Amino acid sequence: MKWTNDRSDNVDDRRGSGGGGALVGGGLGTIIIAAIVFFLGGDPSAILNNSSSTQTQTEQRTLTQEELSVRELVRMLTAENEETWAKVFSQNGIQFTPAKVVMFENTTRSGCGTAQSEMGPFYCPVDQTIYMDMSFFNELQQQFGAKVGQFTVAYVLAHEYGHHIQNLLGTLDKTNALRQSGRYPEAEMNKVSVATELQADFYAGVWAKQTETREKFLEPGDIQEAMGAAAAVGDDNIQKRAQGYVNQESFTHGSSAQREEWFMKGYNTGDIRQGDTFNALLK
Q1: What is the DSSP string of 215-258?
Q2: CA atoms within 13 A on the CB side of 62
Q3: Got a GO cellular component term for this one (predicted)?
Q4: Tens digit of pLDDT for each residue in 34-75?
Q5: What sign does the CA torsion over 238, 242, 245, 246 have?
Q6: pLDDT digits (tens, 9 = 90+) for 225-243
Q7: To which H or E segment does residue 120 belong?
Q8: At the N or C end, where does the chain have fewer CB atoms within 10 A?
Q9: How far apart are CA 80 and CA 208, in angstroms?
C-alpha cells in the first residue's frame, strides 16, 4: 500500500500516556468472558461495566519509532476515510461528520465503558469514536492465522469506520431498537447482527475502491490481504478454533466466505447503494 500525504487530526494516541493500566478487581475471568463476548458479536461493555474493577496507573513511557510510524499510518488511513466518505455523502446529499480514532494500550475510557485491548478494535456510537489497540494485529496473526500487513490495518479501520457510517445513516439506531424490543428470538437477532457486520465489510470495500480511484494507493496483494483478514475473523473460523465445531445459528459477524463476499462486492461496485445486507439476509 502506498502512503498518501494526507493526515487526520482526529486521531488521539493514548499509548504510553500512563493513563491506563491493568484492571484490578474484575478478575481474569471477566476479561476472558468479555473478549469472547466481543468476538462473538456481543457488547462487552455491559460485562466490563458491571465488574467491580478499578484502574491502576502505569508509568508513562516514550513511544518507539515503530509505534510513531504506526501512528502516522493510522492518521493517514483516517484522513483517507474522512475524504472518501465526505465525498460519498456529498454525492448523495447527506451531511458527513468524521469519527474520532483512539489508539490505546491496556485500558482506556470510552463512551461505551472501559475499553480493553482484549476486546479488539470496536466502534462506540455514543461518542462516535473508533477504539484500537494495535496489539490486536499480533493476535490476528498468531491466533487467527491472518497475514498481517499495513493493508490489514487499513481493512480493520475501514470496517470500524463502516459502523460509523451506519451510525450516521441511522442503521445502528434501527438495529438497537429491534434488539431492545425483545420481540424477536435470539436466532433472528443474530441474523440482524450478521447483516450489520457484513454491511460494515461492504462499506470497507467501497472505501477501498473509492480511495483507489482517487489516490491510486493500492499495491499488488493488498486486496487479498484484506480478504484474508476478513476470512480470519469469520464466525466459522473463530468457532472452529475456539470449540472445534461450527454452529451457524449463533453466527453474529458472518462466515469467512460471507465476509469476503461482501467486502469484494463493495470493492467491485464502489457504490454505497448496493450494500443492503439486511434484505439479502433477512428474507
Answers
A1: H----TTHHHHHHHHHHHTSHHHHHHHHHSS--GGG-SS--HHH
A2: 2
A3: membrane
A4: 444 444 444 444 444 544 444 444 568 899 999 999 999 999
A5: negative
A6: 999 999 888 988 888 888 8
A7: none
A8: C
A9: 9
